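Recap for those who missed Tuesday's class. We walked through two folding examples back to back. For each one, the amino acid string is listed first and its predicted structure tokens come directly after. Nothing is annotated here on purpose, so try labeling regions yourself before you check the end of the notes.
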Amino acid sequence: MVQFVEFIFWFSLAAMLYVYSGYPILLAVISGFFRRKQPQPGYAPFLSILIAAYNEESGIRRKLEQTLALDYPADKLEIIVLSDGSTDRTDEIVRSFADPRVQLLHVSGRKGKTNAQNEGVKIARGEVLIFSDATTIYHPQALLHLASNYADPKVGAASGRYQYFDPEGKSPTGLGTVAFWNYENAIKMFQSRIRTISGCCGCIYSVRRDAYTPLAPEVISDLVQPLHVIRKGYRVVFEDRALAYEETTQSTSEEFSMRVRVVTRGIRGLLSVSELLLPWKFGWVSFQLWSHKALRWLVPFFLILFLASNLFLWRRPFYQWTLAAQLIFYGSTLLSLLFPLQRVWKPLGIPLYFCTLNAAAFCSVIEVLRGKKYVVWETVRP
């Protein structure tokens, strides 16, 4: 019995170490054998920027003004605001823009972001489609860098880079969010250098019009759309010069709710293209999906096994140290949840973010097993 519990302890520890460090290190080593030249700005296809919005009256004007000011040929750009049943002044503000490049598509019935994007693509004229959120601000040259990748006919989608910021430094999970997405961006950079990334950044990604696939409303488009692009024989690349600035959530509950929605939609999305998980058919892509997605969503279950087995083995000296480390880690998380300790020392927010991510993943797996679907989203920023 003791040997079996020890196996569970070391297996769960090894699985977590592989997910968070082994896999990225392996990617970094493999990517060192590949050299891909970054495309230079100059190729400028017609772009359609599709901005998903629901009750964004407080920020939609700023978003449109900033988008119109981006460095890209004016005659090769159109902006379509996808208003998913907005009930505030969002539609009115969009219609007030005199610039002919701006148009409104009001999608009635509140069917969610993915559905709104499907509807927007039907009227879009662009050779390349850019998907954005209403709260995201782009670097002035983001479009030039994204577009340059499409000079290569083998590229079917290109993702930009998230750059999160905590404007007032008060978010309990702010530092964790910034650190996590810097880590995610590094993984995408390695994946892209080797062959293809397995998912895009939701607020700044693009798809070649001919490679777009209409998706079910309950799946998350920035993961599933690139997978359909890969199935069609294209590469999906990471363009780290195309920056998108996004504010972190301002409470743990907001972050948790958002992550549950995102992961639940991600799991459903991956199951909708489950054949990509078969390594004998889609070797490299399958390896990435198992390592970067499926196993990561299972980490909360490894954490439970790790703690439970450690509790069983606690009488042995070595396991007393590992148990103490776990209890300190979870204790600091609980304290950060109850008191804003991260304002005193920001790194204390990292355990809270880690536990928030994994608690959300745990709930998401349960939600999928229960048949729960997340289609619509709520605006959390005033």
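Example two. Treat it independently of the first, because the proteins are unrelated.
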Amino acid sequence: MRRIPAALALLLVAVPAAAGCEGSGRDPGTVKVVYQDFGAFRAADLLFQRVKEEFEAANEGVTVELHPIEAPPEDYQTQVNLMNQSPADAPDIIYEDSFTINQDVDAGYLHPLDEYWSEWEDAELYNEQADAAVTALDGGRYGVMLGTDTRGLWYNARLFEEAGVDVPWRPEDWEAVLDTARDLDGELGDEVTPLSVYAGTPAGEVSSMQGFQMLLSGTGDVLFDEEEQKWVTGTQGFVDSLEFIGTVYGEDLALDQRDALNANVATLNNDERIPAGEVAISLDGSWATQSWIESGNQPWPEWEEEMAFAPMPTQEGQDPGATSMSGGWTLAMGAHTADPDLAWRVMAHALSRENALEFAVEGAQIPVRSDVAESEEYRERSPIVPEAVELVDVTHFRPAYSDYPRISLAIQEATEQVVLGEATPEEAAAAYDAEVAEIVGPDAVTGG
């Protein structure tokens, strides 16, 4: 197994692109798998180690070559892109965040899967939501979902009780969230962070999706107008979401700036701060439990007694009352694969019921295969709390278009300006609006 450190990305730039698979040194008997292995999330590594052992044992002469990349999401994507620029180095199977599907299709990095999907007997077990997440703008399928997730408010019930705050807790609107954080701050002192909300550029997509977009989705406003097929600017919801972040940081209810603007903030929260009782409320994902279970990075047997989960309310408590954001990792096939049929067989093995079940449990995922989601075995073993699963009914997804990664960075920059006090929410929103128009062109923008 070859583990690729972040620094190797620079070396990959120097590799000249080959004209095609022939003569590029690709071995048709080897299936190269690239995946992220970073922070607390170990489920991908456990999955592919299992697939390698099982598939090679059953298929003499085949090598499943694993290339785990130790890097946060943005750096991981950069390294995979660099590998894809050379047919000799390009992966056959890519562990891919669903929101990057369209940009990789546009770049010519992915092989369509429609032919294989239409003949795969397990395809009928996947719901329409899972299908939509891996269908590109050209109408083709370019991936298969491994699992999905939701986001909400994890809270430490023990700390709530110490502070005299009633549990179970279900805030009705944003102000109720802030008022609870203020009460906790007054009762628990400086050793406990009342409310963790991700913001800023170092944490990347974590800030954009788990922080800002969890707020924006509760205002009724959107980043992208699907009907007009245009990016939306100039909304009050955008300003209000930044205002919420500004309040949390301005009133010292959040992590201090140095800790908040740390690329590893989410891992540090879930592996260290929350188990140590240093964070009372964390706006984060349903998968946080995968740090705490027996097979996790930092097993914490007491988590089921101490931690609880509440839906993130909409801004004013308006219907449907709660909101969430969902994403999910997929398996995609590289465009330069030497043997697509073999690559698909490895993918199908990784996506089998047994492997999908283990991935869901080990990664605290919400399954997308109905035979896993409905199984008694999953329900008995899953560390995901029922409240998180119920949010699938009110969840939202990122606009997974090629411009989105740059839009997301603009969001992160806006939140960072507010956290650092370099701009008011209105000023940061105006700067975002201008940057969006520059990224996509004025004709692709509506509102404002």
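Answers for example two:
Residues 136 and 243 are 34 Å apart (CA to CA).
The chain has two domains: 4-145+328-390, 151-326+400-447.
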